[in-house]
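dumping these here so i dont lose them again. two proteins, back to back, each one seq then structure tokens. dont judge the mess
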Amino acid sequence: MPTRSASLLLALATLAGCTEIDDGDPLFQPREPPDAAPDAWPLEPTFGSLDVNIFRRKCTGPCHSGGAFAAGNFDMSGDTVASMVNVPAAGTPTNMCAESGLRRVLPGFPKASLVYLKLLEKAKGTPDTCGEGMPQGANRLPLSDEEIAAIGEWIRLGAPP
């Protein structure tokens, strides 16, 4: 049975071998913080781009996660496409979106998609379809025109996964 100091020496030698980093291997490069995502993936009307640049950063984390506690009962922390495409709008006691008859995202029809309408309402300051424009709260800035246009175009193209 090795002594305590021999075990420590063996552990240190093992760890020393783990410190070499291959600078050419992307798996060993430091990860960019979430705010750097737009630089990593250009904003395009594709789900992958929208998910990285907008949905994860500006929707899922701040409001649309937590199961039954998600804003508007709209939890995007799992399968984002399945949670929004062709799904009827839901509501809470203070948000009557369920009564609007709209779908969260109706493929091909941005102006009949609640997500698009609520983003546009916040950005343009127009009357709300139901509840409050998104992102909710006076302290949250609206999405940029470019971000809203990319989401609208993705919906117009059929909201493919």
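---- next one ----
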Amino acid sequence: MAQIRRRGPNRYLISLYIGRDAEGKRKYHNEYFHGIKTEAQQRAAELHLALKRKRGPAALAMTVADYLKNWLERIKETVEERTHETYTWHVKRLVPVVGQLQFYNLTAYELQEGLAKLQGKPKTIKGIYGTLKTALRQAAAWGLINSDPTAGLRSPRVSGVLKLRKRPGGVPLGSSYLFNGILRKYTVHECVVNRFREEPGPTFD
């Protein structure tokens, strides 16, 4: 709740508590307002609503590491054991690079800057990005934050590998698009062999 203090004729100081900083000290948003008291009260209500939408509830003055730890505990009974183990391993990778960020002040830019420090194979890093997105989307679904800060994240690109099914004889289905010449040779050879096997040989009296 905002505090309104008179600081002179038609002059008021509006103070709103917005949480704690990384060192645990209380933080306030202060604004001087010129006008009558009822107008100052109206302005205080507007500020309270605007800051709440922007920053989230004051009770959530926590770091990303704090939230991820809490998230892992809350979902433990709702996901497969193997999935939870993967999430836990990903969180251990995330904490050193984004764990120190203030949870309800998060922006996509801050996350992108921190995640750039991750090292490993693109596929692994993409999985870590996925876990972070899952966790923060859940925070938005729980109402802990007003929007998902990962919406603007760009995940690392992972090159795809085309997998082809094989038909009897060992030639991949659809491979004619990639190996058209080879497939034609194979098919012609196959037909010649099969025809040779089917046709009877010459007979001598």
